Protein 1
Amino acid sequence: GAGVSQSPRYKVAKRGQDVALRCDPISGHVSLFWYQQALGQGPEFLTYFQNEAQLDKSGLPSDRFFAERPEGSVSTLKIQRTQQEDSAVYLCASSFLDSGAEAFFGQGTRLTVV
Amino acid sequence: GIQVEQSPPDLILQEGANSTLRCNFSDSVNNLQWFHQNPWGQLINLFYIPSGTKQNGRLSATTVATERYSLLYISSSQTTDSGVYFCAVERGGNQFYFGTGTSLTVIP
């Protein structure tokens, strides 16, 4: 596609519910990143994929967060047993190379846990 | 990780005015990008500028990598320039570090 696409744009979840957020990167992009942005803050790193390999998951805040990219293209970020503190905008980005290349972000998924 | 500081945190301009936004970072980097976050939350790429100077219309940017700072210049500001501007750097660990942003409001 022309850009990074994320779905859904908005998600309201009841506390304790599981959610899945989808990211379609730019075709051919090797690297894929997930970021979390709290209100009024800059995005913070969650995890990084190079093709299908998850090379860095150091930013995932708890074991309730899980990400996958099984075929090296589309990625899913799953949050189990959502808590109110998980409310944030989740941003996905992709880049052509494995390091040092320009990254392009999707429009984000705004998650609200009630 | 790398510390990224942006200044000023907030800026209010009259339409037509010029401004300079600054980004300081604490370590050498191999990637630096400026983004504009629009009111709908999307990060729009402005510049990919690990070093040197680039210009795109009314916007230009300069990165002095050896002194660990970057500047974003906005000339003849318009109301559509309003939003939050972020600087993000990468050191090669495939992780972008973002500043806390500069919130710009342009008044007609």
Protein 2
Amino acid sequence: EPEVTQTPSHQVTQMGQEVILRCVPISNHLYFYWYRQILGQKVEFLVSFYNNEISEKSEIFDDQFSVERPDGSNFTLKIRSTKLEDSAMYFCASSEWAGESQPQHFGDGTRLSIL
Amino acid sequence: QKEVEQNSGPLSVPEGAIASLNCTYSDRGSQSFFWYRQYSGKSPELIMFIYSNGDKEDGRFTAQLNKASQYVSLLIRDSQPSDSATYLCAVIPFSGGYNKLIFGAGTRLAVHP
């Protein structure tokens, strides 16, 4: 079964550094998403992306964050000038299209640890 | 503020019993409702979704939706120890699109032999 793949599985970074989290969505999917989950808390929506532009973003997704589809398969989340509170699991998800009957499929996540 | 509420649990059921997981949501215009299972340290795994009032069955799982009461539930029949996990209710809110999921905090289910 096709799946969303994320790399790396664990990223350790010094505070203030930039990180790029990578995702390869399911190949025929057109909508891509990033979520995060701080340890012990809810899964939170960050951003959705379609047709090479952001469809929707949350209040969390401020100027520190950016997303990009650099080629036909990858989807990246960049976090500039990381802070301690950015430590979380970051999940990429994709869906074939956006609609009431379209589930989002999640990757295994990247655990980001900011020191 | 669009909220999705779940009882945190743990909900403890014996093996073979029916587990009933509940979720309420505040946005009356919410479009679709999803149940994900999350094992500790793992990613959400889709179980099923529902967007019309009533029941929807898939194997041992039944989702129930009551939009008038803003309530969605998941029944797990013949519960197995491998079903022990946190169950996340997620909702697509009415925002003019279908671009995000709003998650509840999850209910931890423990199935004991």
